[in-house]
Amino acid sequence: QVLLVESGGGSVQAGGSLRLSCAGKGLTYSTYCMGWFRQAPGKERDWIAGINNGRTSYIDSVKGRFTISKDNAKNTLYLEINSLKPEDTAMYYCAADTSSARCVRRMYIYWGQGTQVTVST
Questions:
Q1: Where is 35: in which H helix or E strand?
Q2: Measured distance CA(119)–CA(68) in Å, rounded
Q3: Are 15 and 84 contacting, i.e. CB atoms less than 8 angstroms apart?
Q4: 8 Å CB contact between 58 and 68
Q5: Rounded to the nearest 10 degrees, how much is the dihedral formed by the CA atoms of 75, 64, 49, 101?
Q6: Rounded to whole angstroms, how far apart are CA atoms 50 and 36?
Q7: Interior CA angle at 117 toward 84 and 64, to 5°?
Q8: If you count Cβ atoms within 10 Å of the first and of the last residue's Cβ in the chain, which end, N or C, has fewer?
Q9: Contact between residue 50 and residue 68 where contact means Cβ atoms under 8 Å apart
Q10: From the first residue on, what is the mean pLDDT of each consecutive set of 10 residues in the chain (121 residues)?
Q11: Contact in structure between 92 and 79 (CB atoms under 8 Å)
């Protein structure tokens, strides 16, 4: 059984930083492509970053502020978030899949339950 568990969210002031983690069980991170999504209140869940065969990609609004990385030995995915803005407030989810084709289309089979990030002015 695959299990993804996010952590590291919290309440921070604008300009602050957080590092989100996504720990996995039942899967080998080295063989999976992974991504981060976020969902703000009243909005759809949006893809924000992905890592696939060592290559990273980001939505334009987070480029230069967010960094996705993966530690295969620890089976953990990370999202380093800097220069936080109030509009970054959302529930953040990690996702994983074995198919690069699905990952490129931002479609993932496995999902975590999310970690909340709240940014205040």
A1: strand 33-39
A2: 19
A3: yes
A4: yes
A5: -100
A6: 6
A7: 30
A8: N
A9: yes
A10: 96 98 92 95 96 94 96 96 97 95 93 98 93
A11: yes
Task: Kindly report the number of other CB atoms within 10 A of residue 120's CB atom.
Answer: 11
d(CA 95, CA 93): 7
pLDDT at 46: 97
End-to-end Cα, the chain, rounded Å: 41
Question: How many Å apart are CA 103 and CA 64, to the nearest integer?
Answer: 22
Pairwise CA distance, residues 5 & 77, whole Å: 10
- Backbone angles phi and psi of 87, in degrees to 5: -70, -5
Residues in the chain: 121
Q: How far apart are CA 33 and CA 96, in angstroms?
A: 6
- The closest of 119, 112, 116 to 35, measured between CA atoms, is 112
**Residue 44 has what pLDDT?**
97
User: Identity (one letter) of the amino acid at 99?
Assistant: S
